[in-house]
């Protein structure tokens, strides 16, 4: 059993199955959202007594809340080893909002500069760039891993016109971890900045925005609290103050202006000019509590344990006839606990439904907001996608995804393997 299981709320919740029996829920969908840490819920509960609207209140509780909210920024910076003299923390609602925000700040309005994204990005790190930049996509290899040679070729081809290289720290489809410092070095050599979409990496592996070699520094980082055991609608955008100090945020209103007349506005200092409206104080409290717990457990231990789970699941799945795995790494290679697969002759949605209805196992099926990458992994063209789009009654292609959290057990993987074996043999055996 996982040593971390007691740290989680709801790890042993009983849920109903299709035929009315009850079972303990098994959650293998942690890449979407994680359940809360007990410590997070306790902190929310105990902080509630001091909770008050922040920044403009004169009352004691309001001032206390404001102080805690501002202190949270340095805790977040420290967690990812950002540079507090250079970098600011902007609290947003999630990674998607963080990336959209940055896309507006970097936009030069003439759509001439290039953003180099990749074939393995979540839509949230692809679509925000499309209407503001020329977006070019770094290829993935047949294995699904990022092609670094292609990255360098593209940087060279655009002749210094690449403003940003934007890349996921770890894939939400294959679990591959990208060599972000190597990528940073390449980007900086060509005078480009780098954004790391940390939604999947940050909850599962330590991240260092400031390694010794300054060329390898990560300029921007985005991540979401709801994937790191603090499911309360908070995300983070980290980057240099100077990016956000000039000009006007894409989202303005209460809290963003220092002086407003009907004729002119003086904007608040960064990061306040970027946080329009009443901030999500409880969400930030939850994020800080989760960071404290993750730090005390040590990210290395968490990663090691999750890696063992992943290797175990791989070995189980590999031995089941009819299963196709879409990601492969050697055990020594860095990866996060995400495994995509299909069962021959059984649609991915059916696999998900059978696992849920008959075994109480939650997985995710489909394309996980990463459609181009899945299309590539499954060798499906844009033209074929048109076909699927037009024929609503034809099931769409996709995969089944397992994603583990620190509280998952080896025994849960055994239960999964038993059911997958049964589904692979005969999916109608459950009727
Ligand atoms: N990037 C990646 C790699 C993700 O996995 C996700 C969430 N599935 C996101 C971005 C978007 O995160 P959020 O929904 O919290 O904005």
Automatic annotation (TrEMBL):
Which residue spans traverse the membrane? none
Q: Which PROSITE patterns does the entry link to?
A: AA_TRANSFER_CLASS_5
Q: Which cofactor does it need?
A: pyridoxal 5'-phosphate
The record, for Pfam families, names: Aminotran_5 (PF00266)
Q: Does the keyword Lyase apply?
A: yes
Q: Describe the reaction catalysed, as an equation.
A: (sulfur carrier)-H + L-cysteine = (sulfur carrier)-SH + L-alanine
Q: Where is the Aminotransferase class V domain positioned along the sequence? A: 26-416
According to the record, the signal peptide region is none
Q: Does the keyword Calcium apply?
A: no
Give UniProt keywords alphabetically: Lyase, Pyridoxal phosphate
**A GO molecular-function annotation:** lyase activity
- Which family does the similarity line name? Belongs to the class-V pyridoxal-phosphate-dependent aminotransferase family. Csd subfamily.
- This chain belongs to the protein called Selenocysteine lyase
